[in-house]
Amino acid sequence: MLENFLRPKIEENENNDVFWFQQDGATAHTARCSRAVLQKMFPGRLISLRENITWPPRSPDLSLCDYFLWGYLKAEVFKHRPRTIEELKEAIRQEISAIPLDMLAKVMENFRERLHMCVARQGNHLDDIIFKK
Questions:
Q1: E strands within 3-133?
Q2: Residue-level pLDDT at 56
Q3: Is the alpha carbon torsion for 60, 62, 67, 69 positive or negative?
Q4: CA dihedral defined by 74, 42, 53, 129, rounded to 10 degrees?
Q5: I need a surface site. Which of 20, 96, 107, 110 has the fewest CB within 10 A?
């Protein structure tokens, strides 16, 4: 997936050195072979459990995928009631490409607010923050 999907998508962008990659501590994500690929793709820009830039301790509050994308995709993808892996993959592709740009802008605005609140709360959880549509 990293080599066949992610790398070509990143290479399509002229400024591909601006991308950072953040992953959690799941075993598959921290395997040597996965980390080696990611270290080449994101030199000095890899946020992970076993890297120089460690996974933030309050990551669900600071990860766009955790506080927005996974829940949003689950709700939208399963409206299609996929019955096979291929149907599931296609529904995911369709829903990702259909996310409105104004929604993504709001997610990014919310991310900045979360960062400021995390600093103000000295790294504690942001219990009172919810995604704003």
A1: 21-22, 46-47
A2: 64
A3: negative
A4: -30
A5: 20
Distance CA 50, CA 105 (A): 31
DSSP structure class, residue 59: H
**Range picked from 63-72, 94-103, 110-119, 120-129 for highest mean pLDDT:** 94-103
Question: Given this model, what pLDDT does residue 131 score?
Answer: 44
Residues 63 and 22: their CA atoms lie apart, in Å, by 8
Say which residues have a Cβ less than 8 Å from residue 110's Cβ, sequence separation at least 6.
67, 68, 129, 131, 132
Q: What 3-state DSSP class applies to 53?
A: strand
What whole-number distance in Å separates Cα of residue 104 and Cα of residue 123? 25
Contacts of range 30-36, beta carbons closer than 8 Å, 24 or more positions apart: 34/2
pLDDT tens-digit profile of 49-104?
Answer: 777 777 666 566 677 877 788 889 999 999 989 999 999 999 999 999 999 999 99
Q: Could you tell me the pTM of the whole model?
A: 0.52
Q: Please list, residue by residue across 16-50, b when 16 or more beta carbons sit within 10 angstroms of its beta carbon and e when fewer do.
A: eeeeebbbeeeeeebeeebbebbbebbeebbbbee
